Amino acid sequence: MAILLDGKKVAADIQAGVKEAVAELARGGVVPKLTVVLVGDNPASAIYVRNKARSCEAVGMGSQVVQLPGTATQAELAARVDALNADDGVDGILVQLPLPGHLDPFDILCRLDPAKDVDGFHPRNVGLLQIGKAALRPCTPAGIMRMLDAYAIPLEGARAVVVGRSDIVGKPMAAMLLHRHCTVTLCHSRTRDLASVTREADLLVAAIGRAGLITAEMVKPGAVVVDVGMNTLTDEAAVMRFFASDAAKLKTFREKGSVLIGDVDYHGVLPVAGHLTPVPGGVGPLTIAMLMQSCVTAARARRGMA
Ligand code: GUN
């Protein structure tokens, strides 16, 4: 039976460290501040943004949400980003993705001051990560690395398979694991015979956004399995397939008409894996904790502090 990787606990430890660092900065008269730019009224984004503001408060940092209507133009959004770049009181800028379809995210990410890019999405930071020199790195894979270290998971020489090639998780995850001397394979929706690749993995990171894609027969016995997925199941047959024996999930489904599921068939994989992250309570809390950490890193670096 797999040992559960407790993302909540690791995130709490990260937040405690950030809180101390913020207090230290405050003694020198510096209060790091994060600004989140939210365009439109995507309900999921609104929840994420609210949680980010709350976390800033919890560690003693300043926060601000710049809300633009869903009809905002590229020029209007660009002008806001320019103003935040120029505002010396802002240490971190996060443009919540996805943007409404008529806006070009790449143009906006390129416009961010790389020193304030706490997501690590600006091409300069992406490039620095590839050569192992980024200070500001994408928060989800950076959080996963912290969790793997917290559990002393051996990485050097390990076979790591990342499923999903997004710019936010899959690609930076592969780079980070490579820098820690894993042998990395990056799989995606067009990978042939995915199971034959994932079965080779000592460390399997699922970040493709497909409910329960990773099943028990795709996992090598004893492997470390990290589930980045956050999918919603509304179909009763699918809920029964994954959660027939899970009273709590079935209750949630009856009450809400939907349940949250990762990219891993949790109950199927649990008896096979050596370590496994739950959903929720695995990777999710780490992302926000690392965002706080990145704000402190940006605040220090902008002032020439180590
Ligand atoms: N939307 C989903 N995840 C993220 C993230 O990590 N950063 C930003 N900016 N938007 C997101």
Strand-helix topology:
Layout: E1 3-4, H1 7-27, E2 33-39, H2 43-59, E3 62-68, H3 74-86, E4 92-95, H4 105-111, H5 123-130, H6 139-150, E5 159-163, H7 170-179, E6 183-187, H8 194-198, E7 203-206, E8 224-227, E9 231-233, H9 236-243, H10 247-256, E10 259-261, H11 266-269, E11 275-276, H12 284-302
Parallel strand pairs: 1-11, 2-3, 2-4, 5-6, 5-7, 7-8, 8-11
Antiparallel strand pairs: 9-10
Helix pairs in contact: 1-12, 2-12, 6-7, 6-12, 9-10
The structure holds guanine (GUN).
The site of guanine has 8 residues, from strand 4 and helix 6.
Would you give an account of this structure?
The chain is an alpha/beta fold. It has 2 domains: 31-117, Leucine Dehydrogenase, chain A, domain 1 (Rossmann fold); 139-284, Rossmann fold, CATH 3.40.50. It has 12 helices and 11 strands. The protein has helices spanning 7-27, 43-59, 74-86, 105-111, 123-130, 139-150, 170-179, 194-198, 236-243, 247-256, 266-269, 284-302; strands at residues 3-4, 33-39, 62-68, 92-95, 159-163, 183-187, 203-206, 224-227, 231-233, 259-261, 275-276. The strands form 3 sheets. It has a 6-stranded parallel β-sheet with strand order 1-11-8-7-5-6. The protein has a 3-stranded parallel β-sheet with strand order 3-2-4, sandwiched between helices. The longest helix is centred in the first third of the chain and has 21 residues, at 7-27. The radius of gyration is 20 Å and the shape is globular. The structure holds guanine (GUN). Guanine binds at residues 94-97, 119, 139-140, 168.
